[in-house]
Every structure is written in C-alpha cells, then in structure tokens.
Design goal:
lipid metabolism, flat, lipid biosynthesis, 0% strand, single chain, membrane, transmembrane
Length: 115
C-alpha cells in the first residue's frame, strides 16, 4: 500500500511543479537574455515548481525500491492524464475531445500494465 501512496504523491508533486512552472512563466517576461532567464528562475512560482520536482525526485528513489522500473515508469503516464485535467481546471486550457480520447487510451494502457 505504501508504494502506491509514494507513487501517487510523487505524481501529484510533479504535476504541481508543472502547474507552478506554467503560472510562473506566464507571469514573467522570459526571453533568450541571461537576465530574463535568471529573473524567471527566481520567480516564486517557478522556484516552487523546482522544489516540488526535487521532492518528487526523492520520492522516486523510494518508488524504485518497491516497483520494477518496467512498471513504475510507465505508471507515470497517469500524470499526463492528470495534467490534462488540472490544466483545464487551474489554467483554463481547453479540454478537447482529442485530449479526452488520448487520456482514456493512456488510462487503459496503465490498467493493462497493472493487471
């Protein structure tokens, strides 16, 4: 049971990191200049995204102790499904039929993997 909690927590942190990255770059003036890149990296949302990713990566090490890599890594595909949902809910991105159908295919693939 703990291994599944670790996996879900790691995915949730990685997804949160992506949402914070997106919010941070939306609020910054990112371009190719060094100053702009540094300013963006220091934006609180971008910084928080890195923190969430770091914690997710640490949890990933514990996950690799408990799952075969051939199961754990493909299970991360569920994060693609969840990011579609969170992008629509939190960022106002369009939830298209193609995104929904693609997400259903991913869920079916992960379900087969865990059988």
């Amino acid at each position: 049971m703990l291994k599944y909690i670790l996996l879900l927590t790691s995915m949730a942190l990685a997804i949160s990191g992506q949402v914070f990255f997106k919010k941070g770059v939306q609020m910054s003036t990112l371009n190719a200049s060094i100053g702009s890149i540094i300013q963006t990296l220091l934006h609180p949302y971008v910084f928080l995204g890195f923190v969430f990713y770091a914690i997710s990566s640490i949890l990933w090490l514990f996950i690799l102790q408990r799952f075969p890599l051939s199961v754990a890594y493909p299970a991360l595909a569920m994060s693609y499904v969840l990011i579609v949902i969170f992008s629509a809910a939190l960022l106002g991105e369009a939830l298209t039929l193609n995104k929904v159908l693609g997400s259903v295919i991913i869920v079916l693939g992960v379900a087969v993997l865990f059988r």
